[in-house]
Amino acid sequence: MSRAIQRNSMPRVEDGENGTWKQNLHNGSSGISHFRNEKSRTKTGDIEEHTKEVKAVNTFRQTLIANNLLPETLDDYHMMLRYLKTSNYDIEDTKKMWINMLKWRREFGADSILEDFEFNELEQVQEYFLQGYHGTDKEGRPVYIEILGQVDPKKLMKVTTIERYVKYYVQEYERTLAIRFPACSIAAGRCVASSTSIIDVQGVGLWNLTKPVIELLRRLQQINTNYPDTLHQMFIINTTPGFKMLWNMIQSFLEPKSKSKIQVLGTKFKSTLLEIIDACELPDFLGGSCNCADKGGCMRFNKGPWLDPHVLKVISSGKSKDCNSRLDSTTEEIAHDSRQCSSLEEALVHINRSSKSTALVSDHLATVECKH
What we know:
single chain, alpha/beta, 5-stranded mixed beta sheet, disordered N terminus
């Protein structure tokens, strides 16, 4: 079992606390057979692209093994695919990135940070920097929200330090890879390996860009290079003329690929967000219908499938490992067998099963039910 699944720092929940999630424990269906939200997977080109990805990951994985660069805890199909995509599938460039990542993980202590680090000042930090995960988008990805306009840098640095916040930042990345993505994969019935972010910048201007903030931004961007392609899309909302000047400076910290995933909106953002996120998953102050009144408010609840005890049980048992599994078939076998399938959908099912790139948790498929 992967060490990422064995980690002990899962959210504490009570066995009877089901939230808005239901388990279909005996329906005998596999998440892979549910092609909801997978319309793009209905073209022959998508099969060819997927086969190309499988072949690239398999080649890269064998390269890492031959060079003794693949720890068991990082033997993850989607992690390797993210690195390959970042370097445009150049094996040597990807290998260099991978080596740098391994060096950073050793020096930073990322492998054990979920167990070793306690961010005891989180409640105090949230008084001056409100941020966190809340719900999922319509594709099942976790949604991360920051209320950047309310940040008070001076007071923030009185309750924590840059070093400790950076550790917390890395810990949350590790928690997302180890718990949130697997939980969302189980709930969605498909592999989820990226997130959606909403950044509220109302009131933000150049005056917010203090020396500590600049240093923190620089450090966080350095960290981001070790977690490539985990952002699906970002919405920056409530932009003002003051923020536009600041945005020109912030962009210097971003990689071109990251910038392409960012959509800068003004104050008329609600319809755009509701196209991506169901109202019951979106906080009411962002145009949704959720308020988590009995949980201290949306930004303090950490709502999501990662809190469901049944989902956590599947993760801790290792049954969700299929979403993050090593390859066990050659690309040629996969391509040949998929061509024998009688339909396009059947071929996609076969390819996904062979590469184990989709969450196959047939006995524990969770489906979301919105409370209105």
